[in-house]
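Question (not urgent): is this output format expected?
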Amino acid sequence: MKNPVAAIFAPRLWLSILFLLFMAGYAKADAVEKASEWSFQTGFDNWRLSPSTGADDPSTPNLLQANAFTKWHYENSSPFVIITNNTQLTRDISFSLKARSDQQMGSRVDDLSLQWEISPKLGFRAGVVDYKTSWCRTYETDSPWMREIDGLCVTPQYRDVTGGAPGAQAYTNSELGDYRIQTLIGLYNPLWLNYAPLEFGNLVPPGNYAITSNKKIGFNLNAINTYSGLEFKFSYIRANQSAYSAPPDWSMTSQQKQDMYYVGMSFPIASNLKLTLTQSYRTLNQTARTDQGFSCLPQTYCNYNAEIKYRSKVAEVIYQYDAKNQIGASYSNANIRLGQYFYDNPITTLLESDPDNYHISTRLAGLTWRHDWSKGVFTILEYIHSNALFAYSSQFDSPQLFYSFGNAVGFRLGYKF
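Got this back:
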């Protein structure tokens, strides 16, 4: 079990900081005028959870409260660290860093890249690059949320389509009437640099497995009306992955394809009131095949096909009361469906067909208030209500239905500098 405080100083994060310090030192030593923008956020979160089900109940994580699917062992009180930097090394080349450490996601570096702006209309990035597929607020210095209610932003299994990975990006900037438009295309491989050697989405292969391939391509389109502030976003990312589960228990190859679409619209209702609407759709298809001649474990299936469909809708309103106070409200509706089909070895007979093996529907409503005090100190008070419906059925079992609900109150004491 990892200690959250110790894990903050994980080697990957330290290497990022040391490299950044080197680059910043180089920037100061160079005669060319440069600008460097740092942001450090740290502090403690404290949650009080009251789910209708017990902590060990398998349906409790479906509520997507703060204890759901955490990278580290969950504690009601836990520290967090968020670091960002943008350093202009030369007139055309800049350096970017985004790193975080908390019990929800563990220690991550989502951006550690160099950007080369060939012209105002064309540029490239390389290194560990941010996918930029969503409007998650993780690295915003003035975010009013301790915990966003969009599962794509706070669940480790979904960071493989909203985080970052080693790769390269090309982007363009253009204008059309009152709109400023940016397009981006990227190629990524999380296996490079041993960045994410076990990343495989939600359907983890059985046994002692190793990821043998993980390649991605993504496209983003952003448009903002410079007159009205109306903003649009469209993102798509595709992943092709494979893994091998080794003997003695298995001799299985798993092939997987993931597709995610993300659409967002944001616009000011008034000078101090902003509405954001987003919708995401994700499919994951996996085929697992056992080598012919290999004897499977008793009471297991040698071969299977599986499909997950994930859909999420989120609405958020942020009210900037004054320079020191933000109030926010949000609502989300997420649905996950899993279908599975099992075969013998070699594949000659369909042994079990479960096209709607399980269905999870989770609805969350959140309220938050952020107050910025003097000298970089800030506090956030947040309330989340969630309810979840879990339906299970199979070819050989009677349908089962489970309902759960819960409330969560969180308080963050933070410091930024």
